[in-house]
Specification:
About 30% of the residues lie in helices and about 20% in strands. The strands form four sheets. An eight-stranded parallel sheet has the order 9-8-7-6-5-2-1-10. It has a six-stranded antiparallel sheet with strand order 11-12-13-18-15-16. Strand 12 and strand 13 form a beta hairpin. It is globular. The two termini are about 25 Å apart. The structure holds beta-D-galactopyranose (GAL). The site of beta-D-galactopyranose (GAL) has 10 residues, from loops. Belongs to the glycosyl hydrolase 27 family. One of its GO terms (biological process) is melibiose catabolic process. InterPro entries: Aldolase_TIM, GH, Glyco_hydro_27, Glyco_hydro_b, Glyco_hydro_melibiase, Melibiase_C.
């Protein structure tokens, strides 16, 4: 039995290594950072970016892993006589290289945006047919990340090959600059990007734009009311709720891998349209599905509650797990009470983590509190049906990953008093908060750092199930850890704990 597991782990590792996403060696775990679009749209400036960068540092967010400061649309000002893209000097008076250098001075990384069209979505200058020159400009600005949108494609869309060609041209132009630049496709899940994105990019969006709603359906983000999960169902629009995006990705949630991730869009946490519970569910699922996690809130007005969600190291350790396997949905139940939009369903999502652990999420998107049950047989169906998987035949310890969420008082102190990395370190050390810059998640997990493992709440017996009450519009998020070895012996590295 042991041999079988080892062999499959080896085969898997081999597959991940050879089917490398884009050949640039970047984004081996999903990128973490910030993007202005969700909260600020076109209201961008050098001042905003620099202020945000220093807040990523002083709020302790950089030290739990949020490194990419990404400028979205609305920064350009046409082209010069040589065909080079011009920066809007009203918004960026010292030019983009200066912004980039100052972001890098913090130890952060800098991202920018363009479109595989003749214009960007906000009608700025697009890069279609200017890829080489624009990639050169991006390299001169010393960017580390490019989000590449899909507006105004001059009709060169509608089939996988046409769209692939547009995006591949920029991939090659970026690679030729010699600068390591994470390449993030934003073609809204169109033209089967889930089947080809991995060949040229580090991430690819799978839906139209997210909006700050947990479950409200909107025609602009679905093709037919009844089948929002179909990969053929795309909409270049917006207004995709958290639930709609989850339903869209469910059939192909497993396509992400180290180097190439499925992008569920930037986070809405902290924008104000969802409850605390809904934001926890949104954040946890984005982490477990291995989406890039780009904070979408304006850090100048962030609430303590939102900060305490975004900086949960136990959940970020799921996102940054080196195995890099996205959770998949193992159960969906639509036979539950509905809201006035006719929406109501529950999901169970699960996926493997390094060290033999497993993430397990109960999502209650029904219109009432519910008792939910997860059966090991379903959780490990991917490893073998009818409980034939070895994992189904062992006992598990259940850890709640929100059990030790940061106290709002600490978050408030950070927001009100911290002005530097040192201030943040002092406040966070006093609160015994995890610091991923001094102890990377991989090492923290190997050392069984309790701050990454969550709070022990229950156990599941071999071939058994976990039954739990889940409030309306919330999620319960667990790390399962093997209790006994398959042979009945304890795994060595859990010896101290069990
Ligand atoms: C959309 C894209 C958004 C944002 C916006 C900028 O197409 O999906 O994330 O980048 O364009 O105009």
């Amino acid at each position: 039995m042991r041999k079988t597991i080892r062999r499959s782990v080896l085969l898997f590792a081999f597959a991940v290594d050879t089917v490398r996403a884009v050949n640039n060696g970047l984004a081996r775990t999903p990128p973490l950072g910030w993007n202005n679009w969700n909260s600020l749209g076109c209201d961008v400036s050098a001042e905003l970016l620099l202020d945000t960068a220093s807040r990523l540092v002083s709020l302790g967010l950089m030290d739990v892993g949020y490194k990419y400061t990404v400028l979205d649309d609305c920064w350009s000002d046409g082209r010069d006589d040589n065909g080079r893209i011009k920066v809007d000097l009203k918004r960026f008076p010292d030019g983009m290289s200066s912004v980039s250098a100052r972001i890098h001075d913090h130890g952060l990384l800098f991202g920018m945006y363009s479109s595989a069209g003749h214009m960007t979505c906000a009608r700025g200058e697009g890069s279609l047919d200017h890829e080489v020159a624009d990639a050169q400009s991006f390299a001169e600005f010393s960017i580390d990340y490019l989000k590449y949108d899909n507006c105004y494609s001059k009709g060169r869309a509608g089939s996988a090959s046409e769209t692939f060609a547009r995006y591949e041209t920029m991939a090659e132009a970026l690679n030729k600059t010699g600068r390591p630049i994470v390449y993030s496709l934003c073609n809204w899940g169109e033209d089967f990007v889930m089947s080809w994105g991995v060949s040229i990019a580090n991430s690819w969006r799978i839906s139209g734009d997210i909006y700050d709603s947990f479950s409200r359906p909107d025609d602009r983000c679905s093709c037919t009311e009844n089948d929002p999960s179909s990969p053929w169902c795309v909409s270049p629009g917006a207004h995709c709720s958290v639930l709609t995006i989850l339903n869209k990705i469910a059939p192909y949630a497993d396509r992400g891998q180290p180097g190439g991730w499925q992008d569920l869009d930037a986070l809405e946490v902290g924008l104000g349209g969802m409850t605390d519970d809904e934001y926890i569910a949104h954040f946890s699922l984005w982490a477990a599905l291995k989406s890039p996690l780009l904070i979408g809130a304006d850090l100048r007005t962030l609430s303590p509650e939102a900060l305490a969600i975004l900086n949960n190291p136990a959940v970020l350790a799921i996102s940054q797990d080196v195995l890099g396997v996205p959770a998949t949905r193992v159960e969906r139940n639509t036979d539950v009470p509905k809201d006035r939009y006719g929406v109501g369903e529950t999901h169970i999502w699960s996926g493997p983590l390094s060290g033999g652990d497993q993430v397990l999420i109960f999502l209650n998107a029904a219109n009432t509190d519910l008792e939910m049950v997860a059966y090991l047989e379903d959780v490990f169906v991917g490893q073998g049906p009818s409980c034939s998987a070895p994992q189904c035949n062992q006992d598990w310890v259940v850890h709640d990953l929100w059990g030790s969420r940061m106290d709002d008082k600490v978050a408030k102190e950070l927001l009100e008093k911290s002005k530097s990395r040192e201030d943040a370190a002092r406040i966070l050390q006093a609160a015994n908060h995890y610091n991923a810059s001094s102890l990377p998640y991989k090492e923290g997990l190997e050392k069984l750092d309790i701050r990454l493992l969550g709070t022990k709440v229950d156990e599941i017996s071999a071939r058994g199930s976990l039954s739990i009450k889940v409030k309306r519009h919330s999620a319960k998020v667990f790390r399962l850890r093997p209790k006994l070895g398959i042979t009945g012996k304890r795994y060595n590295h859990f010896k101290d704990e069990l």
